[in-house]
Amino acid sequence: MIRRRIVVVGGGAAGLMAAGQAAEAGADILLLEKMKGPGRKLCITGKGRCNITNVADPGDFIVHFSSTGTFLRQAFSRFCTTELTDFFKERGLELVTERGGRVFPASSRAQDVVTVFMHWLKQCGVKITLSSRVERLMISRGSVSGVVSRRRKIACDAVILATGGAAYPATGSTGDGYRLAKEAGHHTVPVRPALVPLETSGSAAEKMAGLTLRNISVRMLVDNRKRKEVFGEMLFMKFGVGGPAILTLSGDAVDAMRGGHKIILSIDLKPALDEKKLAGRLQRDFASRGREQYSSFLRGLLPREMISVCTEMTGVAPSRQVRQITAQERRCLRTWLKDFRLEVTGHRPFAEAIITAGGIDTREINPRTMESRLTKGLFFAGELLNVHADTGGYNLQAAFSTGWLAGRCAARST
């Protein structure tokens, strides 16, 4: 039996999985990676710990994705959290599940994930060529027949494009896949940064740079109408805000800004207390701590880094005694604690984005196989697709799942 020859373009999460699965299915595999080593982006995900997946029920995965997430139902039904965790455990990688269902290597080393893949691919007989950028696809009569790399023509029966998106370009994700897909007649939904820190107006964020807030609620207002609300953790930076809660909101914020809308982040610093309970607490505290200065009083309510911002935004001098503060000023403080607002003025570039929104139009790809509907023998996997999700391991699971499906189906395609 003649073995199918498949070229996998890209050595990230999707490409590594696709190459190994296709090899296990009996194909002869050549993986081309343009960087000097594979898995560059894998090594920096999850702050270098690699959040490989989430233990959420497969049916719930779709909820965490953009509107095109339903495209992934077939891939998730074949290979999802259980299959992925079993894959790693069978190859000796111990895993741990942390807050929010996030799954990491027990070693907290992303490099261990790449090492598992490299050992596996070697066992499967996958050939890997590094520093090999694919310049173009070879297409004849509606079918892919090979690729051109280093001005060398490489004939094959199928090509799997897994080049990544445009986020973290230093790892090799510079949008090559979009250009190659266009050669095959595919259309691209405009790409933009997602899971990206946001820039805010004024000096408040800069004054609190480095401060992390936990267990807070952040509402995103678009033209003063609530669009989305997230509970969790956020981080203040010199230019604005980041952290899990902000990253979750960032995709919608970027799209709204592209449409010319005004974006406000409304932060509830005391989500466990409703307005009535918070008013009662403040009244009791003001009564019992009347001789204290306002700045000292606030230390019982806020992190130290927030006090100057609070006094400035509520208009109460930090040196005033608490007993001198009026009922109206007390109401102002209560409102600020429940509705601390920052105006979003922009977002950080692709170099600081975790993933890419937009990409190859999924309507042009068969979700049961990941094969192009336009060019026979051309398959897609990973971030290159117009599918993206919240932070928490969902995006990597999508890369692994689409890579698994593309690899298996490319090896068996006729």
The CATH topology of the largest domain turns out to be FAD/NAD(P)-binding domain
Average pLDDT number = 95
Question: What is the CA-based Rg, rounded?
Answer: 25 Å
Q: How far from one another are the termini?
A: 13 Å
Total helical segments: 14
Percentage beta strand:
25-35%
Strand order of the largest sheet: 12-15-14-13-16-17
What CATH first level of the largest domain would be assigned? Alpha Beta
CATH architecture of the largest domain: 3-Layer(bba) Sandwich
* Portion in helices: 25-40%
> What characterizes the major β-sheet?
6 strands, antiparallel, barrel
Class computed from helices, strands and strand pairing: alpha+beta
Total beta strands = 19
Plain-language structure description:
With 414 residues, the protein is an alpha+beta fold. It has 2 domains: 5-190 and 359-412, FAD/NAD(P)-binding domain (3-Layer(bba) Sandwich); 197-347, no CATH class. It is built from 14 helices and 19 strands. The protein has helices at 13-24, 45-48, 58-61, 73-78, 81-90, 110-124, 176-183, 204-207, 244-258, 275-288, 294-298, 307-314, 327-338, 394-412, and strands at residues 5-9, 28-32, 53-54, 95-98, 102-105, 127-129, 134-140, 143-149, 152-155, 158-161, 188-194, 198-200, 212-222, 225-236, 240-242, 263-268, 340-347, 355-360, 378-380. The strands form 5 sheets. It has a 6-stranded antiparallel beta barrel. It has a 5-stranded parallel β-sheet with strand order 6-2-1-10-19, with helices on both faces. α1 links the parallel β1 and β2. α1 runs parallel beside α6, α1 (13-24) runs parallel beside α14 (394-412) and α10 crosses α13. The longest helix has 19 residues, at 394-412. The protein is elongated and about 90 Å long. The model has no long low-confidence stretch (mean pLDDT 95).
